[in-house]
Amino acid sequence: MTDDLRAQMIALLPRLRSFARGLSGQHALADDLVQITVEKALRNLDAFVPGTRMDSWLFRILRNSFIDHVRARRDTDSLDDDDAMPLVGQDGREVTETRLHLADVRRAMNRLPEDQRVVLMLVCVEGMRYREAALALDVPLGTVMSRLGRARAALAQALQDDPALLSARLG
Amino acid sequence: MTRIDPPIDPNDESDEMLMALADGELDETTAERLWRRIETDPALADRFALFADTRHGLQAAYPPEPVPDRLIATVMAGTPASDPVVVPFRRRVSARPMAAWAMAASLVLAVGLGGFLAGRATPPAGATLQQAAAALAQVPTGGEAALPGGAVARALASYDTDLGLCRLIEAGAERALMCRDQGGWSVALAVPGAGQDAYLPASDLGTGLIDAALDDLGAGPALDPAAEAAALSD
Fold this sequence. Notes:
heterodimer, A: mainly alpha, 70% helix, B: five-stranded antiparallel β-sheet
C-alpha cells in the first residue's frame, strides 16, 4: 500500500472509532470493529478508487462488518423515518435543565437507533461538519440534520424519563 | 447528494437554526445575530440549550482518547495484525510486540509525515550528530535546540535500551538514533531525512530501519515525559 493511503487511514482512525462506537454502542466492540475494518481495507486496497473519499469507503466496510459480525447476534431497532423531523420545541426546557451525567448519557445513547447514534458521534463528539458527515455517510445533508435533531430530542427525553437517571440526578 | 443550502433568513429561529448554531454551522454574522437574540429571550435560550447541552454532554461522555497502538500497528504493518509476526523479538518488551510499530506510527505523525529517503541526506552544516545530541541532552521530546551553522536539532523520542538511554533526534535533514555512553553520545543509526524544505511521504525503508534498530537495541516503548526527565538528569 502506498504511504499516502496509510497516512490517510491513520488520520481517519479516530473517526472510525467514533463511527464504530455509534454503531455498536460499546467501547471494546468498537475497537474490534475498527480492527476488522482496517484489516479488510488493507486486504482489499485495490477496491479503493483513488480520489474518492476514503472515509466513506472505510465507513461502508465498517458498517458491513458490523452487520456481519455483530448485528446478527443482538436485537436492534431501526426506526428511521427521515422525512419526519419532530425536533423538540418549547417543551425542551425541562429536559435541558437536566444535568447530563456522563454514564447516563452513554446509557441513553445506547438506547438510540444506530443511525442516530452515528450522527451524534460524528458531529457532536468527533466535530465533523454536517456536510462532511453527509458525504462520509453517503446521505443527504437534510438527513444528517433530521437525524441529529431527532437523536438529540430522544437523548434528552431518555435522560428525563428514566427513573434511575432521575434519582441519580436528584441524588 | 447534498443539496444547496437555502438562503439564510436572518430572523429564522427554527430548531434547525438553533441546532446549527450549537454545532458551529452558522457563519459568523448569522451566529452573532442569533446569539444576541438568545441572550435576551429566555424561551429561545431554553430551546437552544437542548442542542448545546446535548452536544456538551456527549463531548464530556466520550472524551477523546488516544487511538490504541494495535490499530495504528495494523495500518503500519500493512497486513492484518492477526497474522503471526515471525520476527525473533530480542527486546524485553516482547509482551507488546507492536509497540515499536506504534512508535513508528506516532513518529511518522509527529514529524508531519516527513520521510526518510535514501540519497537525500544533507548533513547539518557545521555540526555533527554528536553535537546535536549533546545540545539536546536536557531537552525533552518535542523540544528543539539551535546548532552551530543555523540548523535546528529536535528531540523526537527517548528509549530505555540495552545500551542505556537512546534518543531519536532530527538534526538538519538527518534523523538519528543516538545512544548515551561515557564519552557523550554515539550514533547507533543515522538515516537521511526529508529536511525542512521537502515534504516526502514516509517510506517503509526509514521507518523500518529505525524500527529494526530499536528492536536490536531491546528498546521499550518511548519514555513518557516523567521517565524521560529522570533518564536525562541521570
